[in-house]
Design brief:
The structure is a single chain. By secondary structure, the protein is an all-alpha fold.
Length: 258
């Protein structure tokens, strides 16, 4: 085993241990916490289906799957970036007392968001079966959509983690920003209901792009157009490189700021 692979193995072990600590800290029962990760997207989906399908007479085909697909992808972005934003401040004792690479804490929060998403997929698969969605080979592209999204989330998370150390109030502004992204990601409505100008703006929303790719693969059963992949890939590459640069520069004297 090479030195690099041994280091990666050790870092992954640290990430898992930090994740277990966060699970125990956030839930009195690990089982109930994992069960909630399965149920929670369903609660949001049922609420939105009742409001926008029954009350507002929304005729989107297979609306429950449409909403749940958007909810799961959005939750991954929201929990991943929000957790990463708080990672440095929440682990200041580790940063002061240990020599663990600082980006491990950001990785751990994104890893936790990914694991929570995997739990929510249990209910998602059940819903696909119940609603009669036919499996198709293009569903295999969804993991690629998720992988690119994770790179983007990691890059954004590094930027937010540094900003949060110097400007703690960023949490409140970011919560509002994520609400705007939620309403601008067509989670519970279709793009054609928006004005052309709004559609143009939304087409550059990375969360909307990731959701659209997943919906096309799962619900429509064909390969998403290359422009969607290019946009999402460019976002991921740009923000990962930018985030890595800002994180490296911004964490050089970060212990003194904590």
């Amino acid at each position: 085993m090479t030195e690099k692979s041994e280091k990666r193995r050790q870092y992954m072990f640290v990430i898992r241990q930090l994740a277990k600590r966060d699970v125990k800290k956030g839930n009195s029962s690990a089982f109930l916490g994992q069960l909630w990760n399965v149920i929670n997207p369903f609660v949001h989906m049922i609420t939105m289906v009742i409001i926008f399908s029954v009350v507002f007479d929304n005729h989107v085909p297979n609306y429950p799957v449409y909403v749940l697909t958007g909810t799961i992808i959005y939750s991954l972005y929201n929990s991943g970036t929000t957790g990463a934003m708080k990672s440095m401040v929440a682990n200041k004792n580790f940063l002061v007392r240990t020599r663990i690479p600082k980006n491990i804490f950001v990785f751990e929060k994104v890893y936790m968001a990914f694991i929570n998403m995997l739990y929510s997929l249990i209910g998602y698969v059940i819903l696909l079966i119940v609603t009669g969605v036919t499996p198709n080979p293009y569903m295999l592209l969804v993991p690629l959509d998720i992988a690119i999204s994770l790179v983007l989330i990691l890059g954004l998370g590094k930027i937010l983690a540094v900003i949060n150390v110097y400007f703690a109030d960023i949490e409140y502004f970011y919560h509002i920003l994520m609400l705007l992204f939620m309403y601008g990601s067509a989670i519970f409505y279709t793009m054609d209901r928006m004005a052309p100008a709004a559609q143009m703006v939304m087409s550059f929303n990375p969360i909307y792009i990731a959701i659209t790719i997943a919906r096309i693969c799962v619900m429509d059963g064909y390969a998403p157009g290359p422009m969607l992949w290019v946009k999402l890939g460019c976002y991921a590459g740009f923000f990962y490189l930018l985030g890595s640069f800002i994180f490296k520069k911004g964490t050089q004297d970060i212990v003194a700021k904590l």
